[in-house]
Write a structure and sequence with these properties.
This protein has 3 helices and 7 strands, in the order H-E-E-E-E-E-E-E-H-H. By secondary structure, it is α+β, with helices and mostly antiparallel strands. A hairpin with a 5-residue loop joins strand 6 and strand 7. The longest helix is centred in the C-terminal third of the chain and has 18 residues. The chain binds 2-phenylethyl (2E)-3-(3,4-dihydroxyphenyl)prop-2-enoate and cobalt (II) ion. The site of 2-phenylethyl (2E)-3-(3,4-dihydroxyphenyl)prop-2-enoate has 14 residues, from strand 4 and helix 2.
Amino acid sequence: MAILNILEFPDSRLRTIAKPVAAVDEGVRQLVDDMFETMYEAPGIGLAATQVNVHKRVVVMDLSEDRSEPRVFINPELEPLTDEMDQYQEGCLSVPGFYENVDRPQRVKVKALDREGQPYELIAEGLLAVCIQHECDHLNGKLFVDYLSNLKRDRIKKKLEKLHKQNA
Ligand code: QAP
Ligand code: CO
């Protein structure tokens, strides 16, 4: 197991479109396990492979208080089930320290493969629906700050760039 480096906005590598996983093999399972270790250590509730600079369609998530509900989504596909939108104050390990309201469809159908490569489907609502949509956006090179005004996004970008310079 290993803790992976998390890319931070505005790193252009976060804009990469991830490629589908052709076969869920030992290498993919190793990536999944390293992503869980990285997410739990951060700590966070969701992590997409894009954020650790691996451009494969892999997402890990655990919405429980006690890290008892690890979820794996390989090659996830989303289908909104309603036009109704819900607002949630989102954050992101790639945009540390910033939280803003984002509107997303309230219910989505998710199709994915699990850690064994078995296909499954679920209907997501609430925080699960928010999180899977946020993480699938990462696989398509999109960040929650893209839903904000240019002014808000630019302010966040400048603040993070300043921090990155200080840390360099
Ligand atoms: C995505 O986000 C998400 O700013 C997962 O300083 C967030 O795990 C989905 C984190 C909200 C749905 C709702 C953020 C940790 C973790 C920070 C995360 C920070 C430290 C974010
Ligand atoms: Co994120």
